[in-house]
Specification:
The complex is a heterodimer of chains A (about 525) and B (about 240). Chain A is mainly alpha-helical. Chain A contains 24 helices and seven strands. In chain A, helix 15 packs across helix 17, helix 15 crosses helix 18 and helix 17 packs across helix 18. With about 240 residues, chain B is mostly helical. Classes of the chains: A mainly alpha (about 525), B mainly alpha (about 240).
């Protein structure tokens, strides 16, 4: 209400009887229930639930990293917040729209107390949001394969964003009765949030949620200012609520004190969150990226040694299953050779853009060749592409005995055929189709060594010609090809054996090399 | 009665022009222009961001269109001897040229901002089809709401428009309607946008033509200004149903 009438102003200044608190609560309860039943809010919550529970949503991830999943709900809840902004704005301008504010002025509550009631009516929505977050995160956290730790501040951010956006709606209602202002504000916020502040600049943290963040970084290296951000959001919510009350005529000393305290919280939160990334963890991040051996622990399963960041321990059995499958397809001496599988992560420029993010797979202590080179495995698992990636990396290690060189090596020989065949045969043959989806326009197929989500971290490339040979091999009876691979292992893995020769050795016919295949810069 | 319609419609032009929700339209137009122009002036948006800004501006314009049928004086115009369709069409036709000018200005700002190098990545035609579709959708929604309450349909139509369009941006791959420039499905999706535009326009006309009594089941549903619409629209005049 822009200009409360003279009578209501006097009422606001007068000391209100204690019974008014009950009236405010009664109005808040009434408005809260109406808000919960508002079609806009109901639809938004329903869409949010559909989004979180759709098939393929992160909620159903078999191996959730909790340090990432704790902020998975934030974006959908911010969209719910936009619906709440409009709905509460409509509720708070209802009297104005229907010309009944004069009647309300004659009742017990002055405008500022009605505003307080509208602000309080948002609390049930916070509760609904919190229940949704708790249900989703609880579901993920109780999975036996869950790793990492969630942050309570990240979990509270989503519901608090709903609260903050609702308070914006009440404030707008007190500034103007126009029905276009709330939707227009939503569009302006959407534009600035998703289009302009999409990068990881300091500005992004002034919005309710920062949705673009690194995934798969170990918990201790994540370093998001979630606590300061929550303080900022809570401060902002209280401050805007106090301003809305003040605009409606509630200028008592407690309101002023609250506003000052809230402003302090906003400033402190904004200041500390803008200092992100703090740089305090720069050394630890570099260490984890370049010299992971210093922070990892190792455990041996058979002839394979797994070295991993401590919190990922429950995934070792899943990794071992894939490695065993690959080994089982090789001759006995190769299958028994000791290898090390080492978890790799690019934590140095986590979240920053403009870097190709390639990790040097052979760490300085290991060297690019020789038996010491370890097989990389990423920090994500279970989305369907990571097991193929680990199988490919293991096969590459067993076939070539080398680390992939930086600059996406192209495998144009029998070793490329063998690597891909081992990887696909050891996992699921349906994976070949998903590989083909990622085909380059020039015809080559990239095989990530850490999985799709960490695709830029390192890969090898196969030409279409080698791919055709592998396809032909997969069409043949399995036992026959398995036997021939074991028999011809040394010829197939010798450097210089062409893929045509490999096809001959394995008893399939290879297509001719095409012009596109010739354009790859084979080493 | 029908023969008098063109003459009354002509007479209605001037008062309708005055009764248009000018403050809303002006505010929305300003915000749309600023949302495209400010990033061009202050930062150098990438072609992808520029396209997103144009889309948001189109939605902003459509938000204004949703208030187009708002008519606080509906109590008086409801008694004129012209069908609802003519009164609605008059409002749309009066604003259409202004809408076209505003949209051209938005495209021009983006075109100038893009510079020589990025102009190839600015699909003006495609984004115009999307803009037309959301605007038509806004008119259709306003028409639906106006059947219940002709004084302020925008209050309900505008949030509903956002509720319908914003989730479109989050549709997963095979259903996605909002695509980056150069996407293989671009032509197919824009045929769909054109179909949405056409369907919304047809729906607006049909909804404005159908008498209010048609889908009413509750006889006690006499709320607000719709009450004033009923005596006129419920008249058994077969000519108006054609």
């Amino acid at each position: 209400m822009t200009a409360p009438s003279g009578a209501s102003k006097e009422a606001a200044r007068a000391r209100v009887p204690a019974g008014d608190r009950r009236a405010v609560l009664a109005l808040a309860r009434f408005e809260g229930l109406r808000l919960l039943r508002h079609p806009l809010v109901l639809t938004a919550f329903a869409l949010c639930v559909v989004w979180m529970a759709r098939p393929g949503a992160t909620t159903w991830r078999s191996h959730p990293p909790l340090q990432d999943m704790d902020r998975d709900h934030q974006l959908p809840l911010v969209l719910v917040g936009f619906a709440v902004l409009i709905a509460v704005n409509l509720a708070a301008t209802r009297a104005r729209r229907h010309g009944t504010d004069a009647i309300l002025d004659a009742l017990v509550l002055p405008p500022w107390q009605r505003t307080v009631a509208h602000l309080l009516s948002l609390l049930p929505l916070w509760l609904v949001g919190a229940v949704m977050v708790a249900a989703q995160f609880g579901w993920m956290a109780t999975r036996p394969e869950a790793v990492g730790r969630g942050d309570i501040a990240e979990l509270a951010t989503g519901p608090t964003s709903v609260l903050l956006l609702g308070v914006v709606g009440v404030l707008l209602a007190r500034l103007t009765a126009s029905a276009v202002v709330a939707p227009l504000t939503v569009l302006a916020l959407l534009t600035s949030m998703f289009v302009l502040a999409a990068g990881d600049s300091g500005v992004a943290w002034l919005y309710p949620t920062v949705h673009q963040s690194p995934s798969g970084v170990p918990t201790d290296l994540l370093d998001r200012p979630a606590g300061w951000h929550l303080l900022y959001l809570l401060g902002m919510t209280t401050l805007l609520g106090a301003v809305a009350t003040a605009v409606a005529g509630g200028r008592r000393r407690t309101a002023r004190g609250t506003a000052v305290a809230a402003l302090t919280c906003v400033l402190a939160g904004a200041l500390f969150q803008s200092a992100w990334p703090s740089g305090a963890l720069a050394r630890e991040r570099q260490q984890a990226t370049e010299r992971p051996a210093e922070v990892q622990r190792c455990q041996r399963l058979g002839t394979t040694e797994y070295c991993l960041f401590p919190e990922f321990g429950v995934w070792v059995d899943d990794w071992d299953r894939v490695v065993r499958e690959v080994r089982a397809l090789t001759p006995k001496d190769v299958a028994a050779s000791p290898i090390t599988v080492r978890q790799r992560v690019n934590a140095v420029d986590a979240g920053s853009t403009g870097s190709d993010g390639a990790i040097p797979f052979a760490t300085p202590s290991e060297g690019p060749t020789g038996s010491a080179w370890s097989v990389p495995v990423g920090t994500l698992w279970g989305s369907g592409t990571e097991d193929l990636a680990l199988a490919a990396a293991t096969a590459y290690r067993l076939v070539t005995g080398e680390a992939p060189q930086p600059g996406t090596p192209v495998m144009c020989d029998s070793r490329g055929v063998l690597t891909l065949w081992l990887a696909v045969r050891a996992t699921s043959e349906a994976d070949l189709n998903s590989l083909l989806d990622g085909q380059f326009s020039g015809g080559g197929v990239p095989i990530s060594l850490l999985g799709e989500a960490q695709l830029d971290a390192g890969w090898v490339v196969l030409r279409e010609h080698e791919l055709a040979v592998v396809q032909a091999l997969l069409d043949r009876p399995r036992g026959d090809v398995d036997r021939r691979v074991r028999e011809e292992w040394s010829a197939l893995t010798a450097p210089g054996t062409s893929s045509l020769r490999a096809a001959e050795l394995l008893g399939v016919t290879a297509p001719a090399v095409t012009g596109d295949d010739g354009e790859w810069n084979c080493r | 009665m029908r023969s008098q319609t063109p003459a009354v419609a002509r007479e209605l032009c001037r008062p309708t022009w005055r009764a248009l929700p000018w403050s809303v339209l002006a505010g929305v137009g300003t915000v749309a222009l600023l949302s495209v122009a400010l990033p061009e002036l202050l930062a150098d948006p990438t072609p992808g961001v520029r396209l997103s800004l144009l889309r948001m501006a189109a939605l902003t314009c459509a938000l204004g269109i949703a208030f187009l049928l708002d008519d606080p004086g509906q109590v008086t115009t409801a008694t004129v001897p012209v069908p609802r369709l003519v009164r609605h069409a008059l409002r749309v036709l009066l604003v259409l040229p202004l809408h076209a000018v505003l949209w051209s200005a938005l495209l021009a700002v983006a075109w100038i901002g893009a510079g020589e190098s990025d102009r190839g990545q600015l699909p003006l035609g495609g984004v115009t089809v999307e803009a037309a579709a959301v605007s038509a959708l806004a008119v259709a929604l306003a028409t639906v709401v106006a059947r219940r309450d002709g004084t302020r349909p925008g209050t309900v139509a505008a949030p509903t428009l956002l509720l319908v369009t914003v989730p479109l941006a989050f549709l997963p791959a095979p259903l996605a309607l909002v695509l980056p420039e150069g996407h293989p499905d671009w032509a197919r999706v824009h045929a769909l946008w054109a179909a949405i535009c056409l369907a919304a326009a047809v729906a607006s006309v049909v909804l404005a033509l159908t008498p209010l009594g048609q889908y009413r089941h509750r006889p006690d549903n006499h709320r607000h200004a719709s009450q004033t619409d009923q005596p006129l629209d419920r008249r058994p005049d077969p000519g108006r149903l054609r």
